[in-house]
Amino acid sequence: MTTSQNRFAAILLLALVTSMLMGCGGGGSHSSSSKNVARAREIATTRLTRSTLAIVGLGRKLLTKSTGIPGSRRVQLISRMLAPSSTRSVTTGYDSDLLLYYSLTVNPDSSGSELLFSDAARTIPAGSFIWGAPKWSGNVPNTYPAVIHVVYQILAGPYAQTSGTIDITLQDAAGIKSLISVTLSNAFGEKCSGDYVVDNNNFSSQNIYNLADGSVCTCSETEDTSGEIMCMLGWTDGSSGFVTVNPDGTTTATITDNDGGKVSGDVQPDGTNSIDFADGSTETNDDNTTSEDGSGDSSNQSLIARQKSKSIKRPTLRK
């Protein structure tokens, strides 16, 4: 074989080896990308589900038993003094859904506000819910259905930097049968819009989640007699999953992206999120503050603890 032929053979061999290495690397990158997509969507969907339920006052059904308030706690709080009055009412309390203190003001025309505070002395502002006078059926006071438009912003607590609107359609004076239309935006570029049909202590909803990665997810929620809330998720790219919110506020989730990447997670009421990956690795983060790409979280360094030891047994993923 001539020198030229040797050189050509060497080039062919180098090209072949390079191609094989790139192929292997590409596979690893693809797997990593698929895993990251599933992870980001688990974080985003559990956060949106938890925060939206807190805003409309329908999550954590153990609170319904402890407070004795049927239906939506948010609706009951806003509509408790709907009948026109000649006086202005001011009451204070603790918002168990948002974990914040409040001062509730209802004006003579039934417009009002729920001012939120971080401290029991109510000196540190933490947001508000503001609503106008109800729009009564036929413009006749105390005639139903009645519609109340609410604008809210949350500045502190587990759902800080969340804002949006709520439109409540009350079917009767009791306030336990209603339609709640909600919009929500947060600091992570995530959005939710949805409609909750509430009948006493049960509800169903249809929501649209817009995630920071640009994907759109539908969320269909139903509640069983035990107070467990099941959210079925579906993306336009073929990804799927579910989020389950238990009566005590704990949340579980399983997300499978369209490339097969799969994660399962357990979120505590305080936001502590434990994620299991199909490759045996795990992660713990704060669902309230971790962005979809893992950046922008001041607590990330102390909370994220990935373990990639191949010696541990691969966890069983939820089906």
Describe the structure.
- The protein has 319 residues and is α+β, with helices and mostly antiparallel strands.
- The chain has one domain.
- 22% of the residues lie in helices and 36% in strands.
- It is built from four helices and 16 strands.
- The protein has helices at residues 3-56, 62-67, 73-79, 300-303, and strands at residues 89-95, 100-106, 112-117, 125-131, 146-154, 162-170, 177-185, 191-199, 202-210, 216-223, 229-235, 240-245, 251-256, 262-267, 272-277, 282-286.
- The protein has a 16-stranded antiparallel beta sheet with strand order 1-2-3-4-5-6-7-8-9-10-11-12-13-14-15-16, covered by helices on one side.
Report the span from N to C terminus: 60 Å
- Compressed to H and E, one letter per element, the order equals HHHEEEEEEEEEEEEEEEEH
Strand content: 35-45%
Return the domain count.
1
Instruction: Using the alpha-carbon principal axes, give the shape.
Output: globular
Rounded mean pLDDT is: 81
Sheet with most strands: strand arrangement: 1-2-3-4-5-6-7-8-9-10-11-12-13-14-15-16
Give the helix proportion (percent range). 10-25%
Rg estimate, integer Å: 25 Å
Q: Please work out how many helical segments DSSP would assign.
A: 4
Please describe the biggest sheet, giving its number of strands, its sense, and whether it closes into a barrel. Answer: 16 strands, antiparallel
Number of strands: 16
Query: Which class best fits the helix and strand makeup?
Result: alpha+beta
Low-pLDDT segments: 7-28, 296-319
